[in-house]
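Appendix B. Extra example for self-study. Work through it before the problem class; the solution is given directly after the inputs so you can check yourself.
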Amino acid sequence: MTAIEKSLTPHFLSSRVQALELTPDGVNLLDQTALPGKVQYVLIQTAQQMAQAIETMLVRGAPAIGIAGAYGMILSARQGLDLQLTLDDLRKQIHQDAERLAQTRPTAVNLFWALNAMRTIVDSHFDSPAALLNALTEKARQIHQEDIEACQKIGEYGATLIPKSAGILTHCNAGALATGGYGTALGVVRSAFAKDPSIHVFADETRPRLQGARLTTWELVEDGIPVTLVTDNMSGSLMQHHKVDVAIVGADRITANGDTANKIGTYNLALIAYAHKVPFYVAAPLSTIDLSMDNGSLIPIETRQNEEISTINGELICADEVDYYNPAFDVTPAQYITGIITEKGIALPPYRESLAKLFKT
Amino acid sequence: MTAIEKSLTPHFLSSRVQALELTPDGVNLLDQTALPGKVQYVLIQTAQQMAQAIETMLVRGAPAIGIAGAYGMILSARQGLDLQLTLDDLRKQIHQDAERLAQTRPTAVNLFWALNAMRTIVDSHFDSPAALLNALTEKARQIHQEDIEACQKIGEYGATLIPKSAGILTHCNAGALATGGYGTALGVVRSAFAKDPSIHVFADETRPRLQGARLTTWELVEDGIPVTLVTDNMSGSLMQHHKVDVAIVGADRITANGDTANKIGTYNLALIAYAHKVPFYVAAPLSTIDLSMDNGSLIPIETRQNEEISTINGELICADEVDYYNPAFDVTPAQYITGIITEKGIALPPYRESLAKLFKT
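Solution. Structure tokens for the complete assembly:
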């Protein structure tokens, strides 16, 4: 690990965009399936509702679904208190709900990381159900707050890698919407933009769900950062015409050797960048790094419904009688990754050593 | 040029799909903007209508727009005869209309090749306007018929390159719809399938206009050839999982050194195939090869409207206030092309020599 040791500047751009917020009534989720057409919030009041919101991608993005999972366990505890469960029964219910939350999406490790952090609280000693709820609430708020701070540090470290007036290509949405509120890849963009407003973002539209078009352009326009929308298959043309100086993406799971699962198409982009000698960075908090998993071939890859590919806005865009292949993620081998930007610094190859060191500092 | 010299089998699959047909009333175009939802034909009766049909992509695909351009000049001649123009005035009108047809789309060279072949007829000696019309009709029918035969030979040559039970990835639509009626890349698929029904096609959906989803899946299903639809950004995942044995695409213009302009995303696919050591073939008739142009950097690349990217089915899919980049084509450098399959055989690198030889045999 060669962390770029520089004093982090205290000023960074914050985002106007917030994906989720804990309130006394429940969790307000910004409905990411309705953007950019409608900016609407959905009040989630039970762990079951939260599980469905994660499955249907009202909330998405690895760090954000970690926070959403933690908040889901608070909702479970609140439900238990309403039912006046005993402490033992409350623990049982919360564990059951945690299991349900864990069944939603398999690839992003942040969800399991956050649920496990909350489970540790559930199994600690408390005098009353209310005390357990308070401790869970404190822990979940801490997870959320630490994610924002981690992303801000990722932004500051990452900004040191961005050349003057850079063209930055990103894939999917690794922004405020995907995290506690600042973004990983877009956190780097925010920090870089605060120092150099002449940078420019190119956003892959990111088929099939169009998170780049629907979410990244919206989020960047909200924050006044200039962005050009492209289809996923234009990255080669862009780089051939020297419009891209650096590519940055988020991550759903990074294994011990540096292999990185991220939104489908990330691997394509990494290969295109590699062929053009354009640096390709992954930006992610430590909660995305899964040192317990040796390499990317072991990462469970979620397969989603065929309709994501065969229809757009409910209209069939292909012949009947075709087959579909719809993995939600792909795995980029570590060899194509220039560096992994974390809140503890920038890990460089060989990743098996540099990533392990991050956890010891 | 190392043509694979083998006796071509006399049996090949023909396609049920026809993009355009000359009739006494005009030219029937299968409206490719309405597929796969509606199979509807549009009767084109003037050269001006044909120019608009090419611009709006009712008819598309390099060989098909060459044929459409030639037919457009017949329509011009028919209009002139209806107006009882003198032979001189008729020639003048046809040349003007040819100029209009040439202004439609800049990248595919087949259009200019076909218009020039027809212009040579216009400038030949005739005794009457009717004789000129007859000669133009004969020439255009010959261009159409020779395209079908060229594609069938491309299919036969190309089929020799397809391994048993191969997975074949293609981009955009280089099929019967894009040609006189058999296809270039999909001509290879048809010929291979006739010999080995265990092959399988993967069709890139091909954003922004979705020709792979809308046209290729429809055309293959019509002919009973199994096809799996994928988004453009899944080719890396497919190849990583060893599902693709060969990639084949069509071409809009191939320059003397082998550089190839084709639908946007072709270059991405070539780089992905190259990284996986998957053979990447271009299938095209000689009419697509432009020996007068030295290399791909000289090919004029059409830029199309932003709405192709920003809207789907009329709905905005991104924030307002974004910029767009919408080149309709990209250029794949010759170094990433394993072979160029033509009706005269398969050209291999170095292409400057092998392509030139094709025109001498």
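Self-check: Chain B touches chain A through 59 residues (CB under 8 Å). If your reasoning did not lead you there, revisit section 3.
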